[in-house]
Amino acid sequence: MLKHKFVTVNKVKLHYATAGTGQVMLFLHGFLEFGYAWKGQLQELGKTHQAIALDMRGYNLSEKPPKVEDYALPLLIADIKAFLETVSKGKKAILVAHDWGGAIAWAYAAQHPETLEKLVIINGPHPTVLGRELQSNPAQQKASGYMDFFRSEGAEKTLSANNYAGLAAAVFGGSQKPGSFTPEDRKAYLDAWAQPGALTGGLNYYRANKFGALPLPTITVPTLVLWGEKDTALLLGNLEGLEKLVSKVTIQRIPSGSHWVIHEEPETITAAIRSFTKPK
């Protein structure tokens, strides 16, 4: 049974769902998703861990600071550090993250490795690698064209038109498996998008941060990268050279998965996380 709680950390009130007890396994969602995205993992992994799915700042029921600069990467990292200090109480945690959550998790793991036992990234590009791809890979440049739109002043109006039809098409219509999002899921997402300020909060992640060739310290936390190969926004070039930036990295490709692989292949994702994080 999921429990829903609120906590104020780093001067921001955050909502999270949690299942189970034990070592903290914290899940970070991607753009215009929210903690609910991890419903396929929380109950199962909550059998052995305290599995926590956070609504990151700006999303769903969490607080939505009004300024673009409130979403700069250092503040997002500080949120995770303060949150883990509160729930983990000094013990090492496991961090699992997708998409934008992955970008934050990479940077967090580089800066605070002493707080983590394992890191799992799912279709979330390492900021340094994505910066390289955006500079040198025409295919990734084309695939990332949506970022400029998300930073534009008219993004909210366009994405919210006709009851968020544009967002629904991008999320629900972008899946390799049309049935991955149930009617219940769709309603939950529409309700989350309609929360006052939530659409702007999510878009401000793009407005406050640009992916240049951001240098990060070498990541020493043992890391599993799961990647749906049919991701049309984040291409396979984002896997190239990771071994030079992450000292202990395992890459598992999921040929049938798209960007929404956590919804399309929940059992595969859960099993991979379970195998990688179980005590040796």
Structural class, please? alpha/beta
N→C terminal distance: 28 Å
Radius of gyration: 17 Å
Average pLDDT metric: 95
Low-confidence stretches: none
Beta-strand residue fraction = 15-25%
Q: How many alpha or pi helices?
A: 11
The H-and-E topology, N to C, reads as: EEEHEHEHEHHHHHHEEHH
Task: Characterize the structure shown.
Helix 1 runs parallel beside helix 11 (266-277) and helix 2 (73-88) crosses helix 3. The protein has helices at residues 39-45, 73-88, 100-111, 127-136, 138-143, 146-151, 155-171, 183-193, 198-208, 261-264, 266-277; strands spanning 3-9, 12-19, 24-28, 50-54, 93-98, 116-122, 223-228, 249-254. Strands 1-2-4-3-5-6-7-8 form an eight-stranded mixed beta sheet, with helices on both faces. The model has no long low-confidence stretch (mean pLDDT 95). It has 280 residues and is of the alpha/beta class. The protein is built from eleven helices and eight strands. The radius of gyration is 17 Å and the shape is globular.
